[in-house]
Amino acid sequence: MYSEKENFVRVLRRDDPSHVCYPPPSKGTSYFGAWPHHSRPAEDAAEWLDEWGVRWEVRNGEAFPVGPAVDSWEKVDGIVAPDPKAPGRMEPVREMAESLDRELFFLSVGHPYFMYEKAINILGPAEFCASMLGAPEKAHRLLDVILEFELGIAEQYVKHSPDHVMLSDDYGHQDRLAMSPECWREFFKPRVRKVLDFYRDRLGPDAVLGLHSCGHVMPVLEDLMEAGLQILHPVQSTANDLREMRRRTGGGLTLAGGIDGQRILPLGTPADVRQETLRKMDMLWENGGYLPMAEKSHGVPRENLEAMAQAIRDWSRANVER
Q: What are 208-254's pLDDT values in tens digits?
């Protein structure tokens, strides 16, 4: 059998992998300030502001944005991005890069709240979406400020030679994009492509570039591939037609996730989980091209996660390993 790292690459390339890749041999990290809890002044603080001025609140153990940094698109020109080179910004990345056994694992770096999510947090969902229609120059201005920051983060990341980059932006609702496909193509596709092009230029052709986007994203599948994306996660099964998604992406995109994290994993029995996992393996594996995993693991009983992992191993032995 191939090593886990070589097999991962073969899964992406659909190049006769020796086994199903689970879990992927990547260790992830992100810059300090990427997540809202990085700005939380104390563990018991109920509310706080992040570096952009967005107000966050803890509800049921999770942090949610509850107040925008500015309340009107007319104030967008006054938004100042944090400094990507701030002291300590890359400390988590440096620590991971120095401690990770690169013979066994890929170093993965992330861009949480990448563009759309950061914009709706800063300006508020209604105000930002209205700006794309009523004041597009303001929406572009805000997104350019965010893009400059994200490229600054990327510039710092590449100093640590990551193997895998994951953008994270939830573009979809349960049954549709959060905006029209035309709007997404105008405001987001060029900026996604610019960041992916930056990484491809600086890290070379072997760098693995992925996107996490919950919800319905099928209207822009071809656009994501054109932008240079290689992995799409979590291909939410309650929001997308995964069989059609597999047909349309063909050999151009590796799908990651797809094991129902909304109904079956949190609410089903281990037998339900096993059946769901085997069904998705049959549906999505094409000599690779699929990284099976839970769409969401938060709130999933341990026995169901174990049943999923065992089903993946069993399917691999029966269908791939020789």
A: 999 999 999 999 999 999 999 999 999 999 999 999 999 999 889 99
Q: Which of 3, 9, 4 is nearest to 288 (CA)?
A: 9
Kindly state the tokens that stand for 7.
Answer: 């097999």
Q: Do residues 175 and 185 make contact, with C-beta atoms less than 8 angstroms apart?
A: no
Distance in angstroms (rounded) separating the CA atoms of residues 133 and 179: 10
Point out which residues pair with 49 in neighbouring strands.
55
Torsion of CA 88, 90, 95, 98, to 10 degrees: -130
Q: Which has the closest alpha carbon to 287: 6, 1, 2, 19? A: 19
Domains of the chain in start order, with CATH, are 4-31+71-319 (3.20.20.210)
Q: Could you tell me the pTM of the whole model?
A: 0.97
Would you give the distance in Å from CA 155 to the centre of its chain? 19
Query: Could you say which DSSP state residue 217 is in?
Result: -
